[in-house]
User: What shape does this take?
Amino acid sequence: MTVTRRTFVSTLAAGTGLLAAPGLLRAQARTIRFATEGAFPPFNQTAPSGAITGFEPELVQALSERQGFEFELIAQAWDGMIQGLIDGKYDAVVDAISVTPARQEVIDFSLPYTTGGSAFVTVNETGLTLPETGIKVDLADEAGAKPAIDAVAAALKGKTVAVQVSTIQSGFLDTYLAPQGVTVRAYQTGPEAYQDLLNGRADAVMASVTNLSAFLKKNEGKVAISGPTFGGGLMGNGAAIAIAKGSDLAAMFNEGLKAMSDDGSLSDLSAKWFGIDVTPKL
Amino acid sequence: MDFDWALLGFGPEGWGMVLIRAGGMTLVVSICAFMLGLVLGTLCAWARIAGSRWVQRLAIGYTVVLRGVPDLLVIYLFYFGGRQVVAAVGTALGFEGPFDISGFVAGVLAIGLISGAAQSEVLRGAYYAVPTGTIEAGRVVGMGRLTLFRRVIAPQALTTAIPAMGNQWQSVIKETALISVTGLVETMRQVSIAAGSTQEHFMFYLAGAVIFLIITSLSDIVFRIAERRSLRGHQQGHA
Amino acid sequence: MDTEFLSGIFLKLLTGLPLTLNLTALSLLGGGMLALLLNLMRASRLGNTIAATYVFVFRGTPLLIQIFMIYYGLASFDAVRSSFLWPFLREPYWCGLLALALNDAAYTSEILRGGLRAVPQGAVEAGRVSGMSRIMVMRRIVLPLAMRQALPAYSNEIISMLKATALVSTITLLDVTGLARAEVSATYRAVEIFLCAAVIYLALSLLVTRGAGWLERRLSPYKFGVSA
Assistant: This one.
């Protein structure tokens, strides 16, 4: 009996199929697979039923209806999220990922669907307040941003700031505040960082203003935004759909996002989940 | 602190059902990993008992490495490195990408491999505990290698191995908690999600601990029954 | 192979080594003392029940859950946050160390129990007959014999603890694994970085195995031909 290449391949394929039951080892994508954390409210969160809900799942739903594609939401821990996109485990990521130059080196982005800006939040009880509250600081203008950064660093010297690991905020803290004697503690998930602020293990949390809004609402009167809002530079300019480098999905997503921005449905979605409009005019 | 027990219930806001499902996932992952470990452990023990020098070295190397590296790192390596391997193999076979290795597969492979190293030690010890006289007796009456293994070696070795295998099974169950880092929704991941969503950390981690305790103590009972059953022949023999 | 990248990563990961070793050593020390206490408790009926329950709970649940319960769980009680323990429990280091030591105690107490059981009754009686006090019998006869007996199992426990310290990276500590995870999220080169970390742990556990083997030979006087 001669073993042709074809039978050899199909035998091997059958063997591989046995090892990885259907669905576990996917060789062909038919629908667009979006990864999200499912633990970053209100962007995305998991209901007791196991369903992933939130601003981003509904945004994807709306986009799919508009642009006519099938989609699947995959829950993926933040640790390894971008790695998975590079590896092709899924086609896109919606997880409040901010567009930054560093990330643009390894992945591509759609147009942003939230405005940028990150800030600190502190617990009122502790009496810790940061200077320059309410001021907007553009990190792209290094010289202009320096006084505000130094003032914040002085107020936080010797204190601990909690942040989610490998986010733009952790990049900011490592670059600007850690060298000035501020302890930066990185957590695997956002809620863990917030929990440790409430527990008193951390003196402040830094996160995007949109993300902070949910936490502020839940703990009204207990915590408040303190210090300036940072944007631009390594803070990027808002969150966008992340896709693999060179992916042809960008144009399609952008078209849909633009249309949603134009007819106001993007703002409505934001109002529903954030209570305010956090979306940019596209 | 007041516990809101409704959160653990089965209502629309209750996490009871998902926790039970997550417990089921823990059990499924554990069984798959343990079985894989049993196959690998048997092969490895066999290689060390009867293999050529080269095969023996390979088997020793496998046990040394898997026993010396933290389980968490092994899981990470399988999760992140697995896809590269799958992609290389898949591309070589002419498939179109993208390729994926799920948290489930990566977890089962990683824990199966870790457990295989430990199980091979147990099985090897059990083999050496089989009295050589009985093996010789089997040979003398003309048993083939397979019959000898099935009728003489395996029954005796299993009796010795059952308690230690029970411990291995317990370790596998606990190791599955680490797969949560890949995002697979088993018990540990589910309680983390619930704890994060409800801010009721203590309650949900406690619930997770209870789920694990139920699984480990139930399997303890099963292994004890198995141990008693496997010893039945012995007691009759002594009588 | 990008050797420059690898050696850079390797050096960076080595800076986490002191913390990994510190946690391993101190958790073994704390766990060992607690294990001894648990075994002493086994003399009374109530103590026996408490010790057995302790071992059951800590061996029946994953260490990761124990770490999270201590770190996030305990901290959610106001009573804990206002107690004198808070300065310790506030720090991830102490929470990690506490969880590791409590977990180690459960396993070590079982190893020690096995070792104590293996001490021949005759040796204890001989000691008593020759006029040693109970404490002296414990110190000079029972413990040395039990420890020698338990050494092979205990060397496995040392390696287990060394590997278990990797889990403290989940509560923000930067041990070897914690640094590796941080590097991965900065460079997205998971496989190379985690392999580097694996090599460090592998080298350490081989050292422990060698050391335990040496100690075992030293503690087996018959191998030196010394008559008892």
